[in-house]
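Example 9 (inverse folding). The structure is encoded as follows.
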């Protein structure tokens, strides 16, 4: 009896010791997962940008990009969305305008900078354009432009397809973008791989790549196509339209219903005779030309069938899908469908307001992206001795974009002239509203008067 009590007591002590160790381990785990005071923190902080997870993984992003590329080639609405963005953001009228940073900046320096930029664009006209950069960014969600500094002027650039930027066998979680372990927004290099084998072909330094991405947060490495929100709706509309067309074909396949009195044998015999074939013939179709006269016996009744497509009932459903596509793209319905018959002039002007703001925001975004390229080109010009070392202190940059709204040019200009005469607007502001440089206009006017 005493041995039993002794063994039981030892078992209780061991269990208590085990429970105490378990509680200590749980507390340590909780302390590691909860914020610590600054004095007790080990100092392994995650600085700006923690590399937050994207909604789409690599495979999903590739699938979205492939679907978007196919739709912009085959779907009229997807193509129209991309075309509208190209025309209003990167279309005719987009150009870089060097501006004076200081009052003492010489006009000759601005002209020289503009000439160097035009030389760069002319030399790379087959490899770079504003429209292609914007189109790649919207369609693929990102655009990689590689910079090649050359011993001779001007430098060259090439586009790098996003399929060739990816993780290799060593850095499997990099997504092809190698960043600072403590700051995901500090990019060190880009991994160019063979898209078929996945083997690393080259590691490109970050200062040789201009990476433009959209549709994601700043601490995400890769972008997402603008069509991600409308891909399902575009496919749904195509399926709906195909269903309606098939229904019309099926409902119009029977145009005449002949009712013959008698047994099955009489019906088959009549069909054979009407088809112009004898027994055993596989042909059961009867074709009537326009103006054909049909003569039947009293035992035969003819009933012409009119297809009941109910297409009018299905139209609201199709328009609802189009509205969802327009909402996802951020454009009004009449811009998506190129049909403004659903609204009057006043409602159309109101509807285009959000779209105008969308185009303006895209213009502002790409002005910053193109400015990065402009500064790199000007830096190369400084390296080749074509510009002074203090060039960026003397010269800045402005961008002229396509005009978004132009209702009544004569009336608008007349209003601007009246505001200038009333000293509400300056003459320089009136010139800027017309998309020209006031200093250039004053110089040309003075030269014309002198002649």
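The amino acid assigned to each position is listed next.
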């Amino acid at each position: 009896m005493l041995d039993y009590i002794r063994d039981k007591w030892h078992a209780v002590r061991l269990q208590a010791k085990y429970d105490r160790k378990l509680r200590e381990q749980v507390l340590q785990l909780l302390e590691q997962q909860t914020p610590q005071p600054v004095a007790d923190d080990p100092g392994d902080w995650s600085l700006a940008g923690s590399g937050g997870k994207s909604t789409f993984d690599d495979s999903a992003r590739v699938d979205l990009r492939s679907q978007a590329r196919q739709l912009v080639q085959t779907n009229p609405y997807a193509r129209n969305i991309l075309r509208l963005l190209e025309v209003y953001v990167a279309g005719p009228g987009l150009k870089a305008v060097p501006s004076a940073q200081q009052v003492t900046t010489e006009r000759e320096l601005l002209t020289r900078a503009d000439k160097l930029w035009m030389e760069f664009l002319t030399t790379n006209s087959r490899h770079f354009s504003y429209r292609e950069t914007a189109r790649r960014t919207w369609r693929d969600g990102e655009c990689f432009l590689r910079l090649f500094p050359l011993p001779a002027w001007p430098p060259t650039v090439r586009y790098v397809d996003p399929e060739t930027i990816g993780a290799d066998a060593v850095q499997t979680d990099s997504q092809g973008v190698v960043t600072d372990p403590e700051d995901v927004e500090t990019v060190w290099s880009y991994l160019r791989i063979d898209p078929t084998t996945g083997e690393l072909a080259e590691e490109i330094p970050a200062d040789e790549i201009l990476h433009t991405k959209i549709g994601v947060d700043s601490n995400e490495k890769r972008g997402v196509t603008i069509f991600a929100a409308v891909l399902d709706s575009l496919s749904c509309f195509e399926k709906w339209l195909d269903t309606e067309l098939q229904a019309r074909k099926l409902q119009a396949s029977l145009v005449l219903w002949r009712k013959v009195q008698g047994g099955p044998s009489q019906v088959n015999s009549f069909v054979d005779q009407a088809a112009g074939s004898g027994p055993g013939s596989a042909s059961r179709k009867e074709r009537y030309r326009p103006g054909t006269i049909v003569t039947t016996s009293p035992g035969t009744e003819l009933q012409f069938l009119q297809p009941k497509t109910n297409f009018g009932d299905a139209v609201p459903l199709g328009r609802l899908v189009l509205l969802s596509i327009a909402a996802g793209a951020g454009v009004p319905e009449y811009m998506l469908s190129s049909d403004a018959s659903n609204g009057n002039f006043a409602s159309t002007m109101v509807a285009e307001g959000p779209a105008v703001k969308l185009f303006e925001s895209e213009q502002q975004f790409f002005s910053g992206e193109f400015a990065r390229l402009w500064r790199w080109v000007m830096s190369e010009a400084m390296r080749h001795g074509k510009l002074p070392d203090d060039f960026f202190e003397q010269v800045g940059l402005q961008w002229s974009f396509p005009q978004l709204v132009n209702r009544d040019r004569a009336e608008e200009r007349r209003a601007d002239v009246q505001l200038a005469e009333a000293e509400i607007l300056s003459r320089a502001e009136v010139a800027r509203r017309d998309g020209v440089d006031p200093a250039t206009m004053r110089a040309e006017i003075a030269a014309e008067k002198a002649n």
